[in-house]
Design brief:
This protein is mainly α. The model has no long low-confidence stretch (mean pLDDT about 90).
């Protein structure tokens, strides 16, 4: 990485083929045109609630490891934002829906992967959580660009949440935080950060795919 290259740009380029597959997935296409079967969307949100709870704990853990007040406050705010999004969605789409209590195999794989980063470098742990920020921002923008008039789209609330400029601002703060950590890291750690970013981008695809299939435990 040269002095003018941001780690986040290198990582995004490495993950680009997997992001493209996300935009082509029938779950995302169904959100765009409103044709996604509602039960698949509810299944996704139920699992996303479980994911966000685990994800917020990882964000709080990163905050506890930070060596500057700014970094601590950034990751604590990300954790609070995750809890707020969960409440917002529960009050909307999931208001009268029973909570899911069991993670799908994919949700468990993703959250366990994030939790396993606790013993790695803080930069690597931060890189692992970044796809949830950056992929969602890109997907939100992609959906807005292709959905046209979403007035009658049954998923309008979800689209507006992830296409909101405030969401973009928070995402950029997370990207900048990871770039700061990468700048201080060795080349070997930056390479590991990129590998984790790519892996967790693949897990983002798997999460949507598992919701589309309404994945269950085989035994």
């Amino acid at each position: 990485m040269t002095s003018t290259t941001r780690w986040s740009d290198t990582a995004w380029k490495a993950a680009a083929p997997y992001y493209e597959k996300i935009t082509q997935h029938p779950f995302i296409r169904g959100i765009i045109d409103g044709s996604l079967p509602y039960e698949k969307f509810i299944f996704y949100l139920q699992q996303d609630e479980l994911y966000i709870r685990a994800y917020s704990r990882v964000l709080a853990h990163i905050a506890s490891r930070a060596d500057t007040n700014d970094l601590t406050e950034a990751f604590l705010s990300f954790a609070r934002d995750g809890v707020d999004v969960e409440k917002y969605m529960h009050q909307g789409y999931l208001k009268d829906i029973p909570e899911a209590t069991v993670m799908t195999p994919t949700c468990l794989l993703y959250t366990s992967t994030l939790a396993s980063m606790a013993s790695r470098s803080i930069a690597v742990e931060a890189a692992a959580i970044l796809p949830c920020f950056r992929v969602y921002r890109a997907v939100g923008q992609h959906i807005l660009q292709h959905a046209g008039d979403i007035t009658d789209n049954p998923y309008r609330q979800w689209i507006q949440t992830y296409g909101d400029p405030a969401f973009t601002t928070g995402n950029q703060r997370a990207i900048d935080a990871c770039d700061d950590l990468a700048q201080q890291a060795t080349e070997a750690v930056r390479d590991e950060m990129t590998r984790m970013f790519v892996l967790c981008t693949k897990l983002e695809w798997m999460f949507w795919d598992s919701a589309y299939r309404q994945e269950t435990w085989p035994i």
